[in-house]
Design brief:
By secondary structure, the chain is α+β, with helices and mostly antiparallel strands. It has 2 domains: about 10-45, no CATH class; about 60-155, Band 7 domain (Tetrahydropterin Synthase, Chain A, 2-Layer Sandwich). The chain contains 6 helices and 4 strands; from the N terminus they run H-H-E-E-E-H-H-H-H-E. Strands 1, 2, 3 and 4 form a 4-stranded antiparallel beta sheet that branches. Strand 2 and strand 3 form a beta hairpin. It is elongated, with a radius of gyration of 38 Å. It starts with 7 loop residues before the first helix and ends with a strand. About 10% of the residues are buried. The mean pLDDT is about 85.
């Protein structure tokens, strides 16, 4: 039998098998890489913010009369002269809080008179004192009434 050889004309006439164009391959590869990168960034580099309690909104502020307190130092006599403002949680009014002022003052006096000079003179000490005062006042007058404590005047001797 005769072996048929392909002639150059026959080779040109036969369609050549081609794959997808190189541009499509590069585009799909880039798309997959971008998608994986997005997933990795979302999974490992973003922080999930957990819902906490709603922030306290302060409405009226009540300024209490000045306090003059003997501090608890045993080596010598030290005094604290302080004026405190109480930020009431929104919805509470200064007018309705007036009846609770004696209880608030009592909680403040008891807290302050237990402190030493070294506990109230540093910035960290004052911040800790504000937190302690807020807790003590809230325990005395009721939760959900006072939301902030402000030092409007603060002097030690």
């Amino acid at each position: 039998m005769a072996v048929a050889e392909k002639t150059p004309a026959a080779a040109e006439a036969a369609p050549a098998k081609k794959g997808p164009p190189i541009v499509v391959i590069i585009g799909l590869t880039a798309l997959v890489a971008f998608g994986l990168g997005f997933v990795v960034v979302q999974k490992f580099f973003t922080k999930t913010v957990k819902a906490g309690p709603a922030p306290i909104v302060i409405g009226d502020t009540v300024t209490l009369d000045e306090f003059l307190i003997n501090l608890a130092d045993t080596d010598s006599s030290h005094y604290l002269k302080v004026t405190i403002g109480l930020g009431l949680i929104q919805g509470q009014t200064a007018e309705t809080f007036k009846e609770k002022i004696p209880e608030a003052r009592d909680a403040i006096i008891m807290c302050l008179s237990a402190k030493t000079l070294s506990q109230v003179t540093t910035t960290d000490g004052k911040e800790a004192l504000k937190t302690e005062l807020l807790n003590d006042i809230s325990n005395e007058v009721g939760k959900g009434i006072v939301g902030a404590v402000y030092f409007e005047g603060f002097a030690t001797q």
